[in-house]
Specification:
The complex is a heterodimer of chains A (374) and B (93). Chain A has 374 residues and is mainly β. Chain A is built from 1 helix and 28 strands. In chain A, a hairpin with a 2-residue loop joins strand 13 and strand 14. The longest helix of chain A is centred in the middle third of the chain and has 4 residues. Chain A starts with 14 loop residues before the first strand and ends with a strand. Chain B is an alpha+beta fold and 93 residues long. Chain B has one domain: Beta-grasp domain (Ubiquitin-like (UB roll)). Chain B is built from 2 helices and 5 strands. Chain B has a 5-stranded mixed beta sheet, with helices on one face. Chain B is globular, with a radius of gyration of 12 Å. Classes of the chains: A mainly beta (374), B alpha+beta (93). Chains A and B meet through loops of A and helix 2 of B.
Chain lengths: 374, 93
């Protein structure tokens, strides 16, 4: 039988590592040194957990998770005591409206809203849609402009489903947001969600006869740093890109990587030029190239990339890191974390220079999020 | 005689721990039986049906031994005294 979870004992300054797997969620806790980790879980044993988040706005500590079952559907759970207890499992607050012909399959992203508006949160879900709460997550509604988008009938699911995996909020203009989903690509709004414009100029669609359509790209992840609000980085289904004009156009930055195919991408918390990826060999063989587990880091906004392998297996490592399987914390030096489909979780406490195995033997990892407790 | 809905173990906590729900109303079809179930145990209903009212793809419902997917769906007749059984399918990884 699974161990009965008791929640994290993390206190101020500690690091909470939230790991969602296909069979439950695990909480790892460490001091600010991030050398030793205590594991708690599985929470929601047997259920897949594709999205987790810790919302610390307004002095709170709301831990969110989206457990789901292939049989009984998905829901959203909240804990105000770091996983010791969770909100009522009977509640199903996230639903598509009747008559929409859409039914919730997965919640892929839980994103706290603006720092000065702690009542607002966002969800990215499957089939692709953006949901918004204006009451701290008690109730949710789809953003109508996206729900009713004229392109919806042309968006098609990839192997992971028609999933909205990325939500980016413009730090200086709350009416500006962008989302990304597979397949469809990047869409941006400048009017708080009333209208959405495809924003994929320059992003390839290798799997279509027209390699540069207006929309339909299979974007895997987009990251963003608030210090450079117009800049974005994108990991595509074949392709690495940067935009310097809020997704108005994208430039190829696959300079010196063994493959520009991959899923995961993470932003450095303090340096807007530093980004992490885990390249995979190809869409036909979605494993780390040369059987070496390497994170690649750019420190110059994609002009060059360097492999990071200290502490990572360099033989026989046929690993896969999925689109939400990598993240950073907000510490200095930055913590960088990723989990693999084979159930391993690795952590770096020095900006990615060296790595340690946090845990192995977990179910396939689909979500890794980290937070330093305020 | 009433119609009895038999729940799988996973759904018992959502019906106050009961493994069966006896319907005393005039449920003549599976749809009518589930409408009554929804009124009494909405959380159970939400697990079995999507928000659009469709039976979830990996959930099976039987009247007696007959899978309703092949016997009329929600219009499947439910005789007095029948058992309507909800079971998860064998899918999964």
């Amino acid at each position: 039988m699974p161990t009965e979870p008791v929640g994290s004992d993390a206190g101020r300054g500690d690091v909470l590592l939230m790991v969602g797997t296909t069979k439950g969620a695990f909480l790892f806790t460490s001091s600010e040194e991030r050398e030793a980790w205590r594991v708690d879980g599985p929470h929601f044993p047997g259920e897949e957990v594709y999205a987790m988040a810790l919302d610390q706005r307004a002095g709170g500590r709301a831990l969110w998770a989206a457990p789901g079952s292939a049989f009984w559907g998905v829901t959203l759970r909240r804990s105000d005591d770091l996983g010791a207890t969770w909100s009522d499992k009977d509640e199903r607050p996230v639903k598509f409206p009747e008559g929409s012909d859409l039914s919730l399959a997965r919640i892929w992203q839980i994103t706290p809203g603006p720092a000065d508006d702690p009542d607002r949160l966002f969800l990215g879900v499957e089939p692709t849609c953006l949901f918004e709460s204006r009451d701290r997550g008690d109730s949710w509604a789809p953003v109508e402009g996206f729900l009713r988008h004229e392109h919806r009938e042309f968006w098609t699911p990839g192997n992971g489903g028609l999933c909205m995996h990325t939500i980016v909020q413009h730090p200086g203009a709350p009416e500006r947001m962008l989302v990304a989903f597979s397949t469809g690509g990047v869409y941006a709004t400048d009017d708080a969600g009333a209208s959405w414009t495809p924003s994929n100029n320059g992003v390839r669609a290798e799997f279509l006869p027209d390699k540069h359509p207006e929309y339909g790209q299979c974007v895997h992840k987009v990251v963003h740093h608030p210090a450079r609000p117009e800049r974005l980085f994108l990991q595509n289904h074949w392709g690495l890109y940067r935009s310097d004009d809020w997704a108005g156009s994208w430039q190829d930055i696959a300079n010196g990587v063994p493959s520009d195919f991959g899923f995961a991408m993470a932003m450095h918390p303090h340096d807007p030029d530093t980004v992490y990826i885990v390249p995979l060999e190809s869409d036909g063989f979605r494993c780390t190239p040369e059987a070496k587990l390497r994170v690649y880091r750019t420190r110059d906004a994609g002009a060059s990339w360097e492999p990071l392998s200290s502490g990572l297996p360099q033989e026989g490592a046929y690993e896969t890191v999925l689109r939400d399987g990598m993240c950073t914390d907000s510490a200095d030096p930055a913590g960088v974390y990723f989990g693999t489909r084979s159930g391993k979780v690795y952590a770096s406490a020095d900006d990615g220079d060296s790595w340690n195995l946090v845990h192995e033997g977990l179910p396939p990892v689909v979500c890794v999020k980290a937070a330093v407790l305020a | 005689m009433s119609v009895t809905i038999v729940l799988p173990g996973q759904l018992k906590p959502l019906a106050a721990g009961h493994s069966t729900v006896s319907l005393e109303g005039r449920a003549g079809t599976v749809g009518e039986a589930f409408a009554e179930l929804r009124a009494r145990h909405p959380a159970v209903y939400d697990r079995v049906f999507t928000e659009q009212g469709d039976l979830r793809p990996h959930v099976n419902v039987f009247v007696g031994r007959d899978d309703i997917r092949w016997s009329g769906g929600m219009d499947t007749p439910v005789p007095r005294g029948a058992e309507v059984t909800i079971l998860p399918s064998v899918s999964g990884g």
